[in-house]
Design goal:
This protein is an alpha+beta fold. It has helices spanning about 10-25, 35-40, 75-85, 100-115, 155-160, 185-200, 210-225, 235-245, 275-285, 290-300, 320-335, 350-355; strands spanning about 5, 55-65, 65-75, 85-95, 120-125, 135-140, 165-175, 200, 255-260, 265-275, 305-310, 340-345, 345, 365-375. Strands 1, 2, 3, 4, 5, 6, 7, 8, 9, 10, 11, 12, 13 and 14 form a 14-stranded mixed β-sheet that branches.
């Protein structure tokens, strides 16, 4: 039977779109299902402030009236302004192992790109860096992180058959958490000298209210430090407020390390949180009626931690700010009983962030890829 592509037009269609990977990937032991409510909100222009600077069209592939694939096409005006490009993004690509399905889905994106006068298509991307980025090309036998996305080995092969080629890769690392005694004395002494010489200070958040008060400043610093990274899109004030309220209340204040200068200005940050991957698998995409139980349990009792975001203000790089945060975080992780630390995706070219992992003896165990295709005009 022929593949039919339908665009999402209403809430019922959107729910079908969101649930497509549940049918395709459910049997994979390494797939981590997202929360359906969160995915629905991501594509709601009334709730997701990313739509202030972006448009999207969502497509579902059907055969015999059954969904066999999906894809999101995203026009990021913010990204095109920043990089001076005429590019259309694709993301949230999932499909059964059949080339015609991939061709139909990517063809729908390419058709819209042609209508818009775009010159290139890249992906998988999200609206912003907090969305899943990149397609897994190595590490298919590893459990997905809560912030990443999983795909079987046939996905990249199918995308390449549709004329896409590598644009850039992300890498991910795994390491054991050092014990307090495992941190070399020379590094502890160096950290003391860095602190004294730079008149730096690590913030000790008194409580969650204190953390929430300073969270907007943290996200402004995040936006500044990510400015030069491939694909990063600047955040609007509304987006910063949205992400502060969405994420910060659920993060342990002790697992956020922030360095300030003598003027009490934030100059570096490192955000980690317990891995929710296994808990999200148990939840199966739903918080209620019982999905919240394994998630709350994982937040309180866990031996795996994920590095979410990190950055140092440009004018303070090379002064040991990252060392201060890594050492302090190592002490906290050991105290809290974490054994394993895992990074989320980091661009293969982002050597500054990767250098922070050297203190943890990292092992690269996953690789994700952004693909690109030139638009052929008739």
């Amino acid at each position: 039977m022929d593949i039919i592509i339908k665009e999402v037009r209403n809430q019922k269609d959107l729910k079908t779109f969101v649930k497509v990977p549940f049918g395709i990937l459910r049997g994979s032991p390494n797939w981590v299902p997202p929360l359906i409510h969160d995915e629905m909100e991501t594509f709601d222009p009334k709730k997701n402030p990313a739509y202030e600077n972006a448009d999207s069209r969502l497509f579902i592939a059907y055969r015999n009236n059954l969904p066999v694939g999906r894809i999101a096409a995203i026009l990021s005006r913010a990204a095109n302004r920043k990089y001076g490009t005429r590019n259309l993004r694709f993301g949230w690509l999932d499909a059964i192992e059949e080339e015609p399905v991939f061709r139909a889905l990517l063809g729908a994106v390419e058709a819209w790109a042609g209508e818009l006068g775009m010159e290139t298509i890249t992906g998988p991307h999200g609206f912003v860096d907090f969305d899943p980025n990149g397609m897994l090309v190595e590490g298919f036998d590893k459990l997905c992180t809560q912030s990443g996305n999983y795909n079987p080995p046939y996905y990249p092969a199918m995308v390449e058959k549709c004329g896409f080629r590598k644009e850039i890769d992300y890498v991910e690392f795994l390491t054991t958490v050092p014990t307090r005694m495992g941190i070399p004395a020379k590094l502890l002494n160096l950290a003391d000298r860095v602190m004294e010489r730079g008149k730096f200070r690590l913030i000790d958040f008194r409580n969650k209210k204190h953390l929430m008060q300073r969270a907007p400043e943290l996200f402004h610093l995040l936006d500044e430090t990510f400015e030069e990274i491939y694909g990063a899109v600047p955040l609007t004030p509304r987006q910063i407020d949205y992400y502060v309220k969405k994420y910060i209340p659920y993060i342990d204040k002790e697992l956020i390390k922030v360095v300030v200068n003598e003027k009490d200005e934030m100059i570096g940050f490192m955000i980690t949180m317990p891995s929710l991957s296994r808990a999200l698998q148990k939840a199966g995409g739903k918080l209620f009626p019982f999905g919240w139980i394994p998630i709350m349990r994982a937040l309180r009792h866990n031996d795996v931690v994920e590095f979410m975001l990190a950055g140092v203000r440009k004018s303070y790089r090379g002064q040991g700010v990252d060392l201060l945060m890594v050492i302090e975080l190592g002490k906290t992780l050991h105290k809290k009983g974490f054994r394993v630390a895992e990074s989320n995706q980091e661009l293969e070219t982002n050597t500054k962030v990767q250098a922070q992992w050297k203190y943890f003896n990292p092992v690269q165990h996953k690789r994700r890829r952004i693909f690109k295709k030139q638009i052929v005009r008739p």
